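User: Predict structure, ligand glutamic acid.
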Amino acid sequence: MEKTVRTRFAPSPTGFIHIGNLRTCLYAYLFAKQRNGTLILRIEDTDQERIVPGAVELIYSTLEKAGIVHDEGPDKDGGYGPYVQSERKAIYMEYAKKLIELGGAYYCFCTKERLESLTDENGVRTYDKHCLGLSKEEIEENLKNGVPFVIRQNIPKEGTGTYHDMIYGDISVDYSELEDNVLIKSDGMPTYNFANVVDDHLMKITHVIRGVEYLSSTPKYNLIYDAFGWERPEYMHLPPIMKDASHKLSKRYGDANFDDFVRKGFLTEAIVNYIALLGWCPKDNSEKMTMQELIEKFDTAGISKSGSIFDEAKMRWLNQQYIKELPFEKFMEYARPYFDQSIAKDKYDYEKLGKILCTRIEIFSEIPQKIAFLDEYGPFDTSLFEHAKSKTTAPLAKEILEKILPVYEEIGEWTNDNLFACSEAFAAANGYKKQQVFWAVRVAVAGRDVTPGGATELMDILGKNETLKRIKYALTLF
Ligand code: GLU
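Assistant: Predicted complex:
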């Protein structure tokens, strides 16, 4: 019988949640949920110098916003805790000592100076296993005298480590390429190299899902599993996410993190949906998928080996699909703060604006710029009236505006429908193309040629007084 899947998301609390990390977490979640398995959240905080205050809270809030629900973690005990590595210090030390007894590791007392002397002309330092040669007595003496030490992994000088990766297939790495890395640092804290193995074993992780940067160091971890006689987990390494063909999206430069996209006005569902597609394509090529659909469709066969390029334009497109499906009330809930920050409250009808914008924006943060015409109206160049497609010229626009002004002045019921009908009738009666009239009026009332809605929609929002004022003003510009 297949074992119940237990996988984990193991972020280091070093700042924002990068899109790459979130994708790792999402795939682990999808993989586990599809199999009724368990997702464990483990906080990898052994590199104390890199910890950023507030980063742990950010991990929780990001998972929550993303709709990823872990089953075990620091806040949900499943009997395999503690789930925070810094709280497991004693456990690592105990296992490191066992590993020494088993020959898989050794104490190293080398000084900083000695280690520095091992650096070659290219700046590469390879540890020479010096301390592996220490006698039992020398080691005991050093320990008794409190000489600072680290514990290093004892990697065989020869041989090859092989394993099967669920994405990359059979992987072989010559041990001669690997180093006797530090497993326990001089402050007693473990390194990732050790903690990940001990924890994955003790937490009964069946599938290790993580970034491809760990692909070639995995044989080192396997040596530790083997030395203890522990069963190795299955491995799934995930391709990198690229900024372009040759650069990885990097966390260091803050290229792409979840909260930035939320702040930019992306819907969390759209972000999650998009990152699911970064490196994976479902069999049926679907693009827009709910979390439930992602769980059902996720398959490792659809994961590519090569890096996928982060395409913000595609994410914006996907976001628009989500925005279009929002119930209007919900749309207004998201849009309101953007209206509030960009235009005078109560001066314009938010609902009417919302009706225009809900099918026309890709992300919410476009709103201020889209509606800037409401409060920013001033001198503009009459060349904006020129429109080749409808054969509108500036003089023609002037003529139209002069003639249509009295028509609008007479309108009693200032509604979009009525304005539309009147403008159409005006065009027909005066031998203009409809498009010429709408173009001239739209540029006149907006003071620009790109607007979020049609001429009469804008006029409806501006109101009669303001519209007439603007048309009169536009006429002074010719
Ligand atoms: N703490 C590691 C990281 O953030 C986790 C890698 C893993 O999943 O094993 O990269």
